[in-house]
Every structure is written in structure tokens, then in C-alpha cells.
Specification:
Layout: H1 3-17, E1 27-33, E2 39-50, E3 55-61, H2 65-72, E4 75-82, E5 87-98, H3 103-111, H4 114-117, H5 141-145, E6 148-162, E7 169-175, E8 181-187
Antiparallel strand pairs: 1-2, 1-4, 2-3, 3-6, 4-5, 5-6, 6-7, 7-8
Length: 189
């Protein structure tokens, strides 16, 4: 594959993953830095991709540690691995947070199924639930929307790595603030 084909293929995989719960790239690791300077990684669900602008949309609870970490430092890394054909995608860039009062969050909330909305109706992520079953600590659906936020990740670089039997391959791509490809090159794996 050429560099242009690698870039197009990586973004096509991400775009398809946003609509396919069975895709390996549907579930990605989002890495941020906490207030103590320690890296923090967690799995997130890819909800939407804008290939032209190099944007990934992820939904989150605004009470979560990641929301606070990204509020303080919007520079994040997203990592995914697809077992076939053994490709790792490592994207670096910045995150824009869209809170519950934003138009983007309201629109995304309106598209969520009830089962997904229910994940925002409990207590803050990481808090003890005590002896109560989670179902008893639920708040009203409208209150759940007050905790729903959209994280928009803008890729600045993509590090593509493919494991192969004889010759691993790696390429690095850079994008401008509008999503246009500004450079691409093969690098040593």
C-alpha cells in the first residue's frame, strides 16, 4: 500500500467502527494526564467520525475524572488495535469538551437509545454505591442528560503500525487544524 492508501484505510476503519459494535476499533483507549502528571488510560466507545476534519466523537459523563483531566489539559492520545490485519492506530491531538448545555451534547443525547442514556443516571463515576443496588440509585432520565457530555477529539498525528511476519511496517501522518494531510512518511517500526 502507498502512504495515501494507508491513511485512507485507517480512517475508513475508524469511520466504519463508529457504526459497528463488532469492530475492534469501536472500543479505543483514551489517554490523558491527571493533576499529578500521571498518565491515565481508559476504554471509550467511538460514536462518530468525521474523516475530512479528522474528528472522533466520544460520549462521557461530565463528572468523570477524564472530563476534569481534559479540562485542565486537552492534549490526549487515542490508541486502538485491530487483530486483523494486526494494525495499531495511535492518534495524538486535542480534545474539545461539549457539556450538557451545548447544542452538540443535546443533539447527541437525542440520538441515544434509552439503554445508553441510563448509564448517565447513576452517581458520579468511581463513587461508592454502598449496599444499594444500582437500580435504586438511578435518577430521572432528564437528570441523566445533565451529566452527559461529548468529547470531540481532533487528530494532529496518526502513527500507523502493522505487525507482519517478516517486516513490520510503520507510517506517520500529520494533519492541520482543518484536517488536511500535511505530511506522511514511512518510519522504522
Amino acid at each position: 500500500m502507498t502512504l495515501a492508501e494507508v491513511d485512507a484505510s485507517a480512517w475508513a476503519e475508524l469511520e466504519a467502527a463508529a457504526a459497528d459494535p463488532q469492530s475492534a476499533f469501536r472500543y479505543l483507549s483514551l489517554c490523558s494526564v491527571d493533576a499529578g502528571g500521571r498518565p491515565q488510560a481508559r476504554m471509550v466507545v467511538l460514536r462518530r467520525v468525521d474523516v475530512a476534519r479528522r474528528l472522533l466523537e466520544i460520549h462521557t459523563d461530565v463528572r468523570s475524572p477524564k472530563w476534569q483531566e481534559i479540562s485542565a489539559n486537552p492534549l490526549v492520545t487515542i490508541l486502538g488495535f485491530g487483530p486483523q490485519p494486526k494494525v495499531q492506530l495511535r492518534l495524538q491531538g486535542s480534545a474539545e469538551l461539549n457539556g450538557p448545555a451545548s447544542e452538540r451534547a443535546a443533539k447527541a443525547w437525542g440520538l441515544l437509545p434509552r439503554s445508553t442514556r441510563s448509564t448517565y443516571m447513576g452517581g458520579p463515576p468511581g463513587d461508592d454505591i454502598g449496599d444499594r443496588p444500582a437500580s435504586e440509585s438511578r435518577v430521572a432520565e432528564a437528570d441523566g442528560q445533565a451529566f452527559f457530555g461529548v468529547l470531540l477529539f481532533r487528530a494532529e498525528t496518526l502513527d500507523w503500525f502493522q505487525l507482519r511476519h517478516a517486516d513490520n511496517r510503520r507510517a506517520v501522518f500529520a494533519y492541520d487544524h482543518l484536517g488536511a494531510l500535511t505530511s506522511s512518511r514511512w518510519v522504522n517500526p
